[in-house]
Amino acid sequence: MKNKLDRKNGLFYWTIGTILVLYALIIVVFLVWAFLTSFKDKFYFYNVDMIVPAPFKDWAWNNYLIAWEGFAYTMQNGQKTNALTQVYNTIVYALGGAMMHTIATCMVAYIVAKYKYWFCEVVYVFVIFAMVIPIIGSAPATLVLLRSLGLYDNLAGPLVTNFSFVNMHFLIFYAAFKGISNEYTEAATIDGAGELTIFVRVILPLVMPVFSTIVLIQVIAMWNDFQFAFMYMPNHPTLAYSVLYVMKRSPKTDSVPLKFACGMILALPILFVFIIFRNKIMGNVTMGGVKE
Amino acid sequence: MGWTVFDLGVNKVKKAELQSYKNKRLIFAICMLAIPLLQVAVFYFYVNFSSILLAFRKYDVINSTYSFAEFKNFASVIDKFKTDLALSKSLYNSLILFIVMISFGSFPAILFSYYIYKKGFLSGIFKVFLYAPNIISGVVFAMIFSNFVDVVVPELIFRKTGVFGEGWLADISNISRIRVLCMSFTVFFSFGTHVLLYSGAMSGISDSIIESAKLEGISSMRELFSIVLPMIWQTFVTFMMMSIIGFFTNQMSLYSLYSEFAPSELYTFGYYLYVKTVHTTGAGYIELYPELSALGLLMTLVAVPLTLSIRKLLNKYGPSVE
Predict the structure, then answer these.
(1) Global pTM?
(2) Residue B58, strand partner residues
(3) B299 — contact with chain A (CB < 8 Å)?
(4) Does A267 contact B303 at a Cβ distance shorter than 8 Å?
(5) Which residues does B114 contact at the CB level (< 8 Å), separation at least 6?
(6) Where are the beta strands (DSSP E) in A13-161?
(7) Cross-chain CB nearest to B140 (options A13, A136, A263)
(8) Is residue A210 a contact partner of residue A289, using CB atoms and an 8 Å limit?
(9) Which residue among B138, B152, B200 sits closest to A286, beta carbon to beta carbon?
């Protein structure tokens, strides 16, 4: 029997469906409008039409070049930054941070799930405790510590702070490792494999779908993050923070089409990644492992 | 028994091998945990401990040292609730936002996620659009939204009525309208996450339970409230706990819409904490951090019992899986 909605509940069915259609339409309309506006000439936008797209022959393709140059500005420390540097910062921040986050979580979850020591129980209880008990307002103390360790305002700081296993992905990895039969490790042990070899060559390939999905999700989240990036490294701006800067302050991108072009430079690469990996990203990463 | 000296020797070797194997496992486990635990020891335990200490300190700018400030930082924070417009409004705005998020975000999300879970018409496509706010940066959506309401809407009104007005987000003489816009924007773009996480939890429900319920002839609504909701109750409880934490941390999208220049009347606790932490320039941050730590500690002292109480109440009086 298919798990389908009972169409006898017509009112519920049509109300929810209609609202979801409106929701999807709003998102599509906003994004398409922004994309098409990013190709408008400034004069066309302010004097001809703000809503309807410009004819294709009048598209201002150089908006994206101007927007790219618009990412160049002077930072708090008086030094100049540009789009290329920001892309580099973003890649290091997003990819590096995501890898550190996932590696730390994977390592700890494996030990806690597969090794029966008392300290493993302690670590598990601590993770649950840390996720349940909210601690608010520790950012000032974190920044003081980063300054004293020399990790403030450089690319290493976020990599170190992201090497943490206290997050919900710990439970996902934990469940995934718990679901792996011990027969794999026993067989490998009999064959003479050491603990590290078992982890790297036997266990890790089995959880690679979960690992790669979590890395992907984290890369996307950190690519789009502008608040923590700015908090930890204000003079190493990422692309996302620079879009915010451009939106509010840049004289080079003072028109709406140019601002939208800046936004599209940030959004389009990650949109392509999502389109390619959408099944992986949107597949349910549940407590039982990865569901496709 | 017939044990020979040879047998006893073999047993000793086996015991030694077993002990060596156990030792190697222990060393491996410790090595794997060492660095992550060190990171947590520093960036969780030490940071939270020093945050608590910082709340009781005062920075002496002249001597560049910290001194014990007793409860002066807490008194200053409580006083600021009366004197600092941003902080006093934070309480009001955070409360309104919390109620709005629960009423228009978390609760309705259950109904929408049930539609997705039951594979309603076009649910696959809706999933993609519900996921879109997680894919595209909030700053891009904020840019599109703010330019629409600040540039396009006034222009359209002018062309229709001849009356030129300010942009809706820029016109700080109408704070109520801005508040509604910011809250609507926040609810709209966080909605998808709630729906997808609930539907993810629902997908973990065994099909056999649903099928046997269907055989009993129950309707979809009865199935939602009598079977699905109890089965995902823990997820719901988790969301409620996160909503309470959100009361103190939600910025109402102010930073992405205004950067650090939001009007004081719109501040929320989350926005106040972030802006004061990050945008206090020069050496001013060192003086301000003890007060911010005191404010954070006060919020934690409220949030922890509240979160645990809500969790206990919901678990006690919520629907039972049995």
Answers:
(1) 0.88
(2) B67
(3) yes
(4) no
(5) B198, B199, B202, B220, B224, B228
(6) 73-74, 80-81
(7) A263
(8) yes
(9) B200
